[in-house]
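Known limitations

Files may contain more than one protein. Parsers should not assume a single record per file. Below, a two-record file is shown to illustrate correct handling: read the sequence, read the C-alpha cell line, then continue until end of file.
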Amino acid sequence: MAKEAAQVVTLEFDDGKEVECTLEGVFTSEEQDYIALVPDDRSGDVYIYKYIEKEDGDYYFEDETDEEKFNKAVGAYEKLKGHKSQED
C-alpha cells in the first residue's frame, strides 16, 4: 500500500517571512471551517485559520479575529487530536 504524500502549504507573513507547513486537516467549529497547518520547523506550533472555499473549488485562509471563536476552534482541534482541553 502506497503512503500518500503530505500536502505542503507555504504561508507568507506580513513581514515577508515564509514558512512551509504541512496540512494537518480541515475541521468545523461553530459552523465555520478551519484549517490546521503544522510548520516544518519542528517548533511544535500549529497555525489555525478560517478555511474558505470558493465556488470554483479554490480556497483561501483568513485570520479568525473573534477571540472567542478562535479559542473554540482551538478547543475543537485539540479534541480532534485527543488533547485534554483546559475546560475538562
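...continuing to the second record:
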Amino acid sequence: MKKRILVVNGSPHREKSSTMVITDCFVKGMLECGDYEAETVHVSSLNVKPCLGCLSCWGRSEGECVINTDDVYELKNKVIKADVVIISFPLYVFGIPGQLKMLLDRLLPLMNTYRGQYVPKDGAPAHGPRYNKPGQKFILISGCAYVETEEVYDPVLKQSDLIFGKGNYTAILCPQLKTMIDNGGGRVERTKERFVMAGAEYAETLSLCENTLKAITRPPFSHEVYKTILSNVWAKEIEKGRKGEISEP
C-alpha cells in the first residue's frame, strides 16, 4: 500500500499560492522517488466553523469535537491516517493565515487532554498526540516577503515546537518568495528544480540534509536588488489603486 501525503494548504489563494508552487514541486519529487500518493486540501475551500472553546474534546466527548456539521471531522481523520502531513502557508503578520488558525483550533482533539503538567524542557510536545501513528512526519513549508526568515518566523516556530515537539518536524522557510515567483525570471525554474530534488531526498531519507535546506531557503536576491524590486512592485500597486483596479485572490 502506498504511503499517504496530505498537503494542507493554508493560503486563501488556494492553488495560486506562491508557497504552493514550491510545495507542489516538493511533493512531485516525493512522488517520483518514493511509493507515495498525495492529496491536497485547500483550507479556504472547506466549511470550517470556529472553535467554541467548550473543551468537550478533552472531556465529555474525549478526542472528538462536538461540532459535526462541517468538514473538520473528515479532515481530522485524514491527518490521523497520513504518513506525511505537509502544512503549506504564507506568513501573515508573523503568523499563520486566519483560515489555517481557525482549523488548527478545531484540531485540538488530536492533542492529549491537558492535566496540569508543565511544558517539557526536553523539547517534547506540550501535549503529545492522542492518535499516535508510528513514523508519521510533519513538514512546514512557508514563504514570506521578508529579506530573511530569522526572527519573523519565531512565533510560528515556537507554536510548532509546542504542538509537534522541537525537532519533530521539518521547517522549510523561504524569504522573498512571492516576489521571486512573480519577478524572478530564470530563478523560478531553478528554484522549482531544487524543490523537486529536495522532495526526492525527503522521500528516500525522511529528512533533509543541511546543505539541501540551505539551498532551498537562501534569499534569491541581494538586499539592495530586493529593495529596488519591491519599490517598483509597490509603485505599480499604488498606480493600480489610483485607477480603481482591485486584485482578486
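Parsers that stop after the first record will miss the second one. For reference, the second record is described as follows. The helical segments are 18-33, 72-81, 98-106, 154-164, 177-183, 186-205, 210-217, 223-242.
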